[in-house]
Amino acid sequence: MKKVKFTVAIDAPREKVWNVLWNDDTYKKWTSVFSEGSKAVSDWKEGSKIHFLDANNNGMYSMISKYVDNETMNFTHIGNIKNGEEQPQDETTQSWSGCTENYLLTDASGGTLLSVEMDMTEEFINYFNEKFPLALDFVKKLAEA
User: Fold this and answer.
1) Do 131 and 15 touch, CB atoms closer than 8 A?
2) From CA 8, how far away is CA 65, in angstroms rounded?
3) Domain 2-144: what homologous superfamily?
4) What is the rounded CA–CA span in Å between residue 72 and residue 105?
5) What is the 3-state secondary structure (H, E, C) of the chain?
6) pLDDT (tens place) for every residue of the chain, 145 residues total
7) Whole-model pTM above 0.85?
8) Domain ranges, ordered by start, for the chain
9) What is the spatial distance between Cα 54 and Cα 111, in angstroms, rounded to a whole number?
10) Among the listed residues 41, 9, 37, 4, the one whose alpha carbon sits nearest the alpha carbon of residue 22
11) Residue 36 Cα distances to 33, 58, 80, 90, 124, angstroms
């Protein structure tokens, strides 16, 4: 397991960046970089489950392990979802279950520094090294608009 980090400076206040990240409409836009039709289903409260889904209702489920409005959103990934149903743990999911994905927004030079730190298995490092900067650039464009 490796920890990777992505950052982007955004010329917008933290509140606007936060809304772009987690508002249903804009979330679907910036996460389309990973999979067209992506969505997240949750009540967005600390301790709650969240379903990260593609257009076919496949994806993964996680827990919101930390939530501080306009500052921090941390996810702990648990398992896979197929056809909208949480799947039991298997050998594959056990290899990454418990991995984290952490978003941190800090004030920087009149704007916001968005940092994302993720635990990652070797098989996904190249994919996320390619896609995550594109996704964060999309967040930047939406927040600065």
Assistant:
1) no
2) 23
3) START domain (3.30.530.20)
4) 6
5) CEEEEEEEEECCCHHHHHHHHHCHHHHHHHHHHCCCCCEEEECCCCCCEEEEECCCCCEEEEEEEEEECCCEEEEEEEEEEECCEECCCCHHHHCCCCCEEEEEEEEECCEEEEEEEEEECHHHHHHHHHHHHHHHHHHHHHHHC
6) 899 999 999 999 999 999 999 999 999 999 999 999 999 999 999 999 999 999 999 999 999 999 999 999 999 999 999 999 999 989 888 889 999 999 999 999 899 999 999 999 888 899 999 999 999 999 999 999 9
7) yes
8) 2-144
9) 31
10) 41
11) 7, 12, 18, 27, 18
Cα 5 versus chain centre, distance: 12
Token pair 């920890």 in the structure block, residue: 3
Separation of alpha carbons 66 and 82, rounded Å:
26
